[in-house]
Design a protein that fits this description.
Number of domains: 2
Order of helices and strands: EEHEEEEEHEHEEEEHEHHHHHH
CATH architecture of the largest domain: 3-Layer(aba) Sandwich
Low-confidence stretches: 1-16
Structural class: alpha/beta
Radius of gyration: 19 Å
CATH topology of the largest domain: Rossmann fold
CATH superfamily of the largest domain: NAD(P)-binding Rossmann-like Domain
Distance between the termini: 42 Å
Number of helices: 10
Bound molecules: ketopantoate
Mean pLDDT: 93
Strand content: 15-25%
Length: 315
């Protein structure tokens, strides 16, 4: 089918077995992951809140990177009665992870892996406390996604995805990265996921507040206008990382930031999209987390502090 055309034949394959993946949080990125997993033949169910039971659910309207639109049949379940869960993929906004998971305390069988894929840090530790008998896996991803309506998603950028263990029990679940790779084209397992989380935090501290405040696409951060501020953000993040036992050069962080800016040049950051839609942003889990760790070590981070305040005032 030529790119840009709609394939209106709903893929009617019903899931013959219990879903491989249960997805909590079907926003832009969650919707894209659910679509890619479904297309790769890994039955995926989205878990919704009870109040969505009456909502029409024709399936997911998914536009892939090449512009091909398809209507995908996808099973839905409800949090109050989640049924059997084999593995749980949590893709809510960072600030909603704990409240979205709380109804599943006592419902999720021990040993079921919980994979967390959100921006920001400081959440996984809370999930380990909530679910002490489950493997908890943290992930970082740089895929781009947009949502333009109810269950209407577009994959806007092919990125990298990395998973790694948060607790001891999670170390036996590296195979999950291979299964995600089947759907995403690439996904890796890294025992040092904390380092990747910090590197992603630096990228988000740099790109997200600036694009949201100045209403820019990611690519518009290139050039002299933002060169100094991007460098200062990276210097501050590197100082905090050093104190956290994650030594890195600020130039290396800046190089990563500029690489993501180039790779996602046409995209609007998630914080830009959240602000435009009047949704709560992830500033607390991103820059807020950095400020918390900086304060704990007595490190001044004035540039990040200023961006944090500016977003808080605007959102
Ligand atoms: O993670 C992102 C986001 O928008 O939240 C980046 C990597 C900045 C891509 O837009």
């Amino acid at each position: 089918m030529p790119s840009g055309l709609r394939d209106n034949n709903l893929k009617t394959r019903r899931h013959p077995v219990s879903p491989e993946w249960t997805l909590l949080g079907c926003g832009a990125l969650g919707g894209v992951f659910a679509s890619l997993l479904t297309q790769s033949g890994q039955p995926t169910r989205v878990l919704l809140r009870e109040r969505h039971r009456a909502t029409l659910h024709p399936g997911i309207d998914f536009t892939s990177l090449d512009g091909h639109t398809q209507l995908l049949a996808i099973e839905r379940g409800f949090i109050d009665n989640p049924g059997s869960i084999k593995r749980l993929l949590v893709m809510t906004k960072a600030g909603q992870v704990v409240s979205a998971l709380t109804p599943l305390v006592g419902q999720l069988a021990a040993g079921v892996p919980i994979v967390l894929l959100h921006n920001g840090m400081g959440i996984a530790e809370q999930v380990v406390t909530l679910f002490p008998h489950n493997p908890v896996i943290a992930g970082v991803t740089s895929h781009g996604a947009m949502q333009s309506g109810h269950f209407v998603f577009r994959h806007t950028g092919k990125g990298e995805t990395w998973l790694g263990p948060v607790n001891e029990a999670a170390k036996a679940h590296a195979y999950l990265a291979d299964e995600l790779a089947t759907a995403l084209g690439q996904a890796g397992w890294d025992e040092q996921i904390l380092t990747r989380q910090w590197q992603k935090l630096a990228v988000n501290c740099a790109i997200n507040p600036l694009t949201a405040l100045y209403k820019l696409r990611n690519g518009e951060l290139t050039g002299p206008r933002f060169a100094d501020v991007l460098q200062q953000i990276c210097v501050e993040v590197a100082d905090v990382m050093q104190a956290e036992g994650q030594p890195t050069a600020s130039d290396e962080l800046l190089r990563r930031v500029m690489m993501v800016v180039e790779l996602t040049a046409d995209n609007y950051s998630s914080m830009y999209q959240d602000m435009e839609q009047g949704r709560e942003t992830e500033i607390e889990a991103i820059t807020g987390f950095l400020l918390g760790r900086a304060a704990a070590h007595g490190i001044a981070v004035p540039v990040n502090q200023g961006l944090y305040q500016a977003i808080k005032e605007k959102q």
